Structures are given as structure tokens and as C-alpha cells.
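Please, structure for the following, as C-alpha cells.
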Amino acid sequence: MTIQPAKLSDPAVRAFVSAVNAHDRDRFMSLLTDDATMSDDGSDRDLAEWIDREIFSSNGHLDVANESQGGRALVANYRNDTWGEMRTRWAFTVADDGRISRFETGQA
């Protein structure tokens, strides 16, 4: 059973998942602070390069299985054209202005 993006608790995370699933790079980027960072499997990555490769050029999609920490931590089945589907974890740091300043992902 998955949680529909519109039902996710945290507004920033809800918008993040919706933008990923809509393949809307411009909307996605507007959700991040100018100095946003991210990590994948514990290693910091170049944000722009990573999102283009892992999300937008490979048709990334998140099916959220559960959320915790007020909606700022997710377990989701993530799939893209490069890697297929895998169980992943996501954690988000949201700045005072409501935009995401950091997200961390990796295999769950």
C-alpha cells in the first residue's frame, strides 16, 4: 500500500514527491534553497548532476510506503529507467522559508 503524494504530511516533501513524479524539473528546483545539498548512500553528490541523471533524464518515480518524523523521512519504492525499482529511504531538512535545504537518500 502506498501513500498518495497529496496525503503526505510535510508540505515541502509533498511538493518534492509530486514534482519528481510529474517530471517537472523547474518546479523541483523551486522547492530547493539556493545552497541545497544532497547525499546518496552516505556520499555527498553534485546536486544538479545527480537529479538530472537519477531523476529527470531517467524518468524517476517515487511510491511512498511510509513516512515518519513529521513527514520528513520516507521509505519509498523508487524506480527509474537506469536502475529499475529499489526500496529507498529519504530524509529531508526544510529551511525556515519552507524550501528543502538538504535531502539524503539511499537504499533502505
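Helices lie at 11-22, 25-30, 47-56. The CA atoms of residues 75 and 89 lie 4 Å apart.
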